[in-house]
Amino acid sequence: MVNGLNLLFQFLDSFAFIVLAAAGLAIIFGIMGVINLAHGEFIMVGAYATTLANIRAGLPLPAAMLVGVLVTAGFGLVVERVVISGTVPNALSQRFLGRKVIEPLYDRLADSMVATWGLSLIMVQGVRITLGNSLDQIGTPLGNIAYSGFSYSTYRVMLAAVALGVLALTYYVFTRTEYGMRARATIQDEDTARALGVDTERTYMTTFAIGSGLAGLTGALYAPTITMVPGLGSSFLVEAFVAVVVGGPSVVLGTTLAGGLLGAINATVSNVLGTFFGRIALLVTAIVMIRFLPDGITGFVETLRERRQEGA
Amino acid sequence: MTDGLTNRRGFLASSAALAGTALAGCSGGSASGDDTLTLGVLEDRSGNFALVGDPKHKASMLAIEEINNDGGIDGKQIEVFDPDPQSDNQRYQELTRRAINQKNVDALWAGYSSATREAIRPIIDREDQLYFYTTQYEGGVCDKNVFAVGPTARQQLGSVLPYLVEEYGPKIYTIAADYNFGQLSADWVKVLADENDAEVIGEEFIPLSNSQFGSTINRIQSAEPDFVMSMLVGANHTSFYEQKASAGLDVPIGTSTAMAQGYEHRRLDPPAMANIYAGVNYMEEIPTNRNTSDGGFVDRYYEKFPDAPYLNEEAENNYFSIYMYKKAVEQAGTTEQPEVREALESGITYEAPEAPDGESIKLDGATHHVDHHMWVMRADDQHNVEAVDDRVIPETFLSETVGCDLTQEDEETQYTPQDFYEEAG
Question: CDD domains from the xrefs (chain A) (predicted)?
């Protein structure tokens, strides 16, 4: 006997978690061709900054969350300049050695994975050394919705609306702003874009900062619901990567569809068979998708469209 | 970087201990020459188990410093081999080999999780190394070289479950971590439910990687149990308590894992842990004189480690077992391991902080387990913790049900409840 409201709330909860976990990763991967294995740790930076701003500095929760987003975006900017593009070390080596030492990690999938994985290890241990094994946790605000013997956390249901808002905003930024146009031009053909006067370097930098900021937002939003330990980012990784694989190349549409599909599968299976099978279903879905739709949902749609055009 | 720091800290701690001993040597002059013995202490100070492993390391250092300041063991000063195993079982195996073969440790304390214990037990048994495992665990290890001095699932759950049946009713819902420890603990809940005329009406095992509990919470609500037994483990699972509180699930919860080890009642915002009952042999708030009085265990711990976040269950187990080892060596008159083992098997007792005045806890020679003084500790909606029940609960599974007697027969086995109870399995 499936309770409809339970299922609905579990779906919204799961949808929000998947979309928010994946958003920053999808942008950085989709636009820069960088697989950021430190994505979970960017989320951790957002969660830690939010918690510290709220508990230690006494800021109200929404302001603390804004701090979390800005700190993570700023941190992302530094990482992009130092590790991903290598601009800072290259400028130094140019001055002292007379040559560049670092090749940017754009579109070097395997290399970017190793570099960001190393970064994630440094970040987890660094936080453990400086801030200890755990932080006090903020309580979840907003109480609960009660209905016929059941209840669900209002805050977690609300996150679904926030997730939709994030998707809408991302869509707006990438389709309706000048930055978005430059970013899309850079993905499509970097050389031509540069020839037309797009500062691709700067586009990459901004994109990485935006992606990091979104990871920070995820951390900020989930800070009141999860345990504050240095390794907290790893609990987002499975959902994030599965969603990016399932979603495919189109960032906004892909993430939305992946969140909808995976959220529905995860919520339904968890509801009927339990948490354990819910996670199995998530992973099985990823395997099936990689086998039959290697380009994800949006890649598949794209192929269909191309075929139809050829046929016409 | 961690290594550098922790080692430096470790170095500072041990040089402080040495300085202390040097002073004691000057004033008391009781130390008999430069004779020393070496204890291996492998406890996690980084990685997954750092949160719960670090207090074990600290309390071990406290015991060793106290003993050294007091003239050592039988006149011998204690030296420590204590690298950080970083919550990594492979590193544990390496370090265990190094401790035994290169450092020739006289006794070894090592490991937080049961997985770690099982990873190094073959090495321990091959080398016949005297070994103390101090974490509360699923129980059933009957091994001639292993002294499992933490409370077992039967002791922990056996203290809190009967209390909750009495207090709230017989319908139990179990949630447990989906691995060896959680599965066996859930079996013990079934055995104990049967013994206390209660019934397990639902059961869910949660993968360790899961941190989202929406569907679990709904499932508990739809089963309407009188109370929940929770054997959740690790940082991901800790999120359950905040999530169930924000979802408005206010059913009482009994646990053998929360609060006493990872001090969730200090880290989480109230009232996440309200109405949670922990069945434990020790936590910082245990109201005994030895524990909380001026100059008691808690005072001494924070005097040595002012910045320590908490003094947890396993920390006390490390502390008292080092003192038990001291008694055994002094009784045996040697650090030769077979003789020390025999002395430990003679029924050593110690006035541990967990036991009230006039009482001590006893190491059972036949099973190498401890008859603990167990406490049921309840957190209220402000996260104040108070004792609501306490009594001595002997280890009975190995001694009565299995019939393990290591003084008569050398064994290296772990027994499980499925082998002996119909309800389990």
Answer: TM_PBP1_LivH_like (cd06582)
